[in-house]
Q: What sequence folds into this?
């Protein structure tokens, strides 16, 4: 048996950055078949909640722990957002260039990329694709301030809650992550062709079962 070692060459992994964000709007059948680029993303903070233990006591002892359901939420911050996001942010456009607020909010999907680095390759070691389903944006504060000698661009922020989608053989989920350092690169490129589109494919967000079907069960 090999002895455990720490901080070996190439093993000092870290994750950084966020880019390649895409917004997906579902059709009436729940298929995320419309994807558009979301520029100006400054941060996406994942915030899972739940999965809390509730202790039950019997026979004068701690009998068991019951765990609550886990939910996935996130906070998205950006300098701008695509026009298609307006319906997700509670706005309607009855006339070109005119937005009416406080309207029903449409659910949406997201994909975004984070860089995986290590002590050998730096930030170019690989990346992870994060896919989010059934997201709903809550109203958030938008602060507008005067231009002064320390100008800043307005930053928009949204709190997201999610509704999980079905996964065959597993519990429903609202988030799926694919690590480029651990999967076949040809298959990874096939997934990216679906997410970002190509000469023959419109950008779309495949459901978890469709993503899993792309990858073999064994590495």
A:
């Amino acid at each position: 048996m090999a002895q455990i070692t720490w901080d070996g060459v190439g093993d000092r992994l870290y994750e950084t950055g966020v880019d390649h964000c895409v917004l997906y709007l579902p059709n009436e059948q729940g298929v995320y078949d419309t994807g558009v680029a979301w520029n100006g993303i400054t941060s996406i903070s994942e915030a899972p909640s739940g999965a809390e233990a509730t202790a039950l006591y019997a026979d004068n002892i701690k009998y068991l722990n019951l765990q609550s359901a886990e939910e996935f939420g996130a906070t998205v911050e950006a300098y701008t957002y695509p026009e298609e996001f307006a319906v997700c942010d509670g706005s309607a456009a009855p006339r070109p260039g005119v937005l009416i607020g406080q309207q029903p909010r449409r659910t949406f999907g997201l994909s975004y990329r984070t860089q995986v680095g290590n002590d050998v390759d730096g930030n170019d070691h690989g990346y992870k694709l994060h896919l989010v389903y059934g997201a709903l944006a809550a109203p958030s504060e938008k602060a507008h301030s005067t231009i002064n000698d320390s100008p800043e661009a307005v930053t928009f922020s949204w709190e997201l809650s999610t509704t999980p989608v079905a996964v065959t053989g597993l519990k429903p989920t609202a988030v799926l992550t694919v690590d480029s350092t651990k999967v076949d690169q040809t298959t990874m490129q096939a997934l990216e062709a679906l997410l970002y589109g190509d000469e023959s494919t419109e950008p779309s967000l495949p459901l978890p079962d469709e993503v899993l079907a792309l990858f073999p069960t064994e590495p």
Observations:
- The CA atoms of residues 96 and 206 lie 31 Å apart.
- The mean pLDDT is 91.
- Helices lie at 185-196, 208-214.
- The chain has two helices and 16 strands.
